[in-house]
Amino acid sequence: MRSARRRVMAAVGVAAALAAVLAAAPGGAAADPVMPGRAGVEVEIPGPEHGTVAGSGHTRVPQEGRDQPSSRLSAAEEAADGEVTKLVDNGSTDDRLDIVVVGDGYTAAELAQFHTDAKEKWAELAAVEPYTTYQSLFNVWAVDAVSNESGVSGDPGPAIVRDTALGSYFWCDDIERLLCIDQEKVDGYVAKAPEADLVLVLANSAKYGGAGYNEPSATLGYEGISTASAGNEKSGQVAIHETGHSLGKLADEYYYPGHPDYEKYTGPEPADSNISTLAAEDMSGQRAKWHLWLGEESPDGGTVGAYEGGGYYVTGLYRPTDNSLMRVLGKPFNLPGVEAMIAGFYRHARVVTAVTPTGRTLRMGDTAKAAVPRLTGADGRQLRIRWYLDGRELKPFAGRTQVRVSDVALWLLDLRTHKLSVTAEDRTPSVRDRGIARTLKSTISWQLRL
Questions:
Q1: Going by DSSP bridges, is the β-strand pair 353-354/367-371 parallel, antiparallel, or unpaired?
Q2: Number of domains making up the chain
Q3: Residue 251 belongs to a domain
Q4: By the number of CB atoms within 10 A of the CB, which of 70, 151, 161, 207 ranks highest?
Q5: How many CB atoms sit inside 10 A of residue 170's CB?
């Protein structure tokens, strides 16, 4: 989103705008934002196009797409349908977080445009921290889904129905900006790419909209699906916000002013890392939640504290900062949010990869080689690399990505089989939680015998 359009409302203005949205939004979002009793899959509704609120509730929608004519592709179109392209290659699927992008409403003649759109959305994502620093941990794949017609249903109006590969449609649940998909069809294309961790569906449209399908896939293993309009700059911000849920496991930090069911939270302490029943003084005293960040300047503006209102409730719950990306589109993640996102990255990515195969025993004349990604943060920080022989650190080799067996032989006193290991550890100052910090390292090992 262009900086000129990133005007953040004052807190009162945000509350008033959200209240108006909830009052006016069709489809019952104001009446019950979560709708737990309805069948289907729960999705997050993006905030209004001309506001800055990140979301405006949740609703349940069918997993199927909108009814449309049966697709009939030519032989040439069928040959192109389902083709997989690696747009960003930072290493093996086993060691990287793999984003799979599938387009809808692109005809065979428009697939080149789809690839361009996919690269642009990745660039938008990579411009936001901590994605910027950790972009080398990601692979990006494009899966071509050939549609009979260009564009998607519901654009420009609810009566428009187009024959598309994924059945995408605006006006989902009678909410104009809610962009839903046929999840079974999406999964059919995602399955063609290697081991997706996160899925982005791009609609061939300039109309503002999106949705967050944040339930992990039981069959394909991905964390969630974000939908977005390829040609609308604000829709990309919606998709980034949704990754805060799927990868960071972050709660929404906005709330519903004027809604009778969400005036005051009286339940137990939430599991989410970025909302709490504790005020700042209690949080510090109990060493709970984001207590390690209290008082620090946050990239989204202001200092980390305990700001009342979050998790949809006006009172009774606190958020770390006034206006992070989990509340306001176009803003950065706050410091606790950055930490949670990094933890999410490392659930899927490893920071050391074996170049020399680990399945064979190394002998004199061999070299153990590893590869580590280059982190691109402003501080120029690199990973800490250490080598070990049978668990004992070989300090002279610190920082190297390869070691000759003949050099290691100086430490060997017998001819039995030994284990040579290398560990890469990320000691980022953006993580203060010790539990998370312990997950920010990877190790590979080789058997060694002279």
A1: antiparallel
A2: 2
A3: no
A4: 151
A5: 27
